[in-house]
């Protein structure tokens, strides 16, 4: 079930006893929470709502609440967050969770309780009995990370709903500086809404109000490297150092980015589409989109040379064979002189 379907069903009074909210999109998760909270008025929330974090609270406490009749109201609402016992995670915590109790509750849930589990992961551990039972008996709400097309659609819908306007270039910069993450885009939009007195969001506003992340800067750095723009690459690298970024961290992210570019280049040459690449590489769709745009411009030899040079830097940095700060600049000077 999509979030929009949940909102409609709850408003119509079609409320199920157990829900599983599965996925990692913070914006959608917050929408789900708001929809469920609307089931209770202010007075009822004080006595008939409780939230339990499974990293600090025992599952038994949530189940006790779930099996209690509501006080002066029609229903009780119980949230269970961070249910790591549904996943492959095994954190060491001084808590024993009553999994058998949850299995019994799922078989016979209290009709006056709305029991909601929020699993902030891409998928549950299908090997576990409780995970299989929950997905079978609960109503599953999809809050997975939005892909590139869905991000664009949701972004335009949100902007238009609020009565604002944004051109394509400004929208592209907003998505880029938010690393294609819809929840981050929504957070950045709030600043832009406040700044746009005439309801028009411009590229200048986005550039001024939405700060580039380290990933954004690395994307620019990759572009400078591939275009062999030595001066721009070294200037940006030094800016990152001034911002207290570690040379090893910068090199590691660069190395990972060139690894991705090589993978995308090879698979794209074999006819893989953007959707297929996203599924195979398990990478955010927006990163795949940017990678595809980059690899079309550059040869396999340049991508390979850059990757091998950064891999050599990684080894030298970690083994202490050279000055960590200077290694990137030396790499850039050497790479710029390689003929494609």
UniProtKB/TrEMBL annotation:
What are the DNA polymerase III delta subunit-like C-terminal domain coordinates in residue numbering? 215-335
Keyword check for Nucleotidyltransferase: yes
Pfam families per the UniProt record, alphabetical: DNA_pol3_delta, DNA_pol3_delta_C
Recorded superkingdom: Bacteria
The protein's matches in SUPFAM superfamilies, at most eight in alphabetical order, are given as:
P-loop containing nucleoside triphosphate hydrolases (SSF52540), post-AAA+ oligomerization domain-like (SSF48019)
Per the UniProt entry, the Enzyme Commission number(s) are 2.7.7.7
The DNA polymerase III delta N-terminal domain, residue ranges? 19-144
User: Catalytic activity, per the record?
Assistant: DNA(n) + a 2'-deoxyribonucleoside 5'-triphosphate = DNA(n+1) + diphosphate
Give UniProt keywords alphabetically: DNA replication, DNA-directed DNA polymerase, Nucleotidyltransferase, Transferase
Keyword Nucleotidyltransferase in annotation: yes
Q: Which NCBIfam families match?
A: holA (TIGR01128)
The record's similarity note reads:
Belongs to the DNA polymerase HolA subunit family.
| Name of this chain's protein | DNA polymerase III subunit delta
